[in-house]
Amino acid sequence: MAAVHAKFELAAAPFEVAPLRERLLDDAAGAYASFEGWVRNHNDGRPVHGLMYEAYAALAEAEGQRIVEEAAQRFAITGVHCVHRTGELAIGELAVWVGVGAGHRDAAFAACRWVIDEVKARVPIWKHERYADGDRQWLHPVAATTEGSAPREDTP
């Protein structure tokens, strides 16, 4: 069996999804699933004007890489790639992307969901939201209470 493409990256600038998706093309893949998290204009009933992601880069990259490698072991996939932005992001900007190639859709969907959930729970990336009223707040993920429960936080 060929080695599974498994890559995690931090990106300080906007990035294009199409070339990343191309890296997941594989003759053994019959399915592809992806997740895109965007910056939205509200959170918990408050208007948001933007946010900043800050990461401990060395640790974030190492833990993110561990996650995608674990996904390659846990799921019957042909490839997995995740990119998370850092720095200032405006409303509508792509904050995080996960792509998964697999022989079948069930594995692609399951691995994609698992990767984003694990990234949000384990990778040291912090979010600082800027609100319309001028207030700012650091937000931290909250661990899910049960397997398959709602996402760990109400943001990408």
Task: Summarize this entry quickly.
The chain is 27% helix and 38% strand. With 156 residues, the chain is an alpha+beta fold.
Write a structural description.
With 156 residues, the chain is an alpha+beta fold. Helices cover 27% and strands 38% of the residues. It contains three helices and nine strands. The protein has helices at residues 17-22, 57-74, 105-122; strands at residues 5-11, 31-38, 42-43, 46-55, 77-85, 87-90, 94-102, 125-131, 136-139. Strands 3, 4, 6, 8 and 9 form a five-stranded antiparallel β-sheet that branches. A hairpin with a 4-residue loop joins strand 8 (125-131) and strand 9. The radius of gyration is 16 Å and the shape is elongated. The termini are far apart. Mean pLDDT is 90; it is low at 144-155.
**Alpha-beta content class:** alpha+beta
Shape: elongated
- Kindly state the mean pLDDT as a whole number? 90
- How many helices in DSSP terms? 3
Low-confidence stretches: 144-155
Q: How many beta-strand segments?
A: 9
Into which percentage range does the β-strand content fall? 35-45%
Rg value: 16 Å
- The helix content is 25-40%
Order of helices and strands: EHEEEHEEEHEE
- How far apart the termini lie comes to 34 Å
Largest sheet: 5 strands, antiparallel
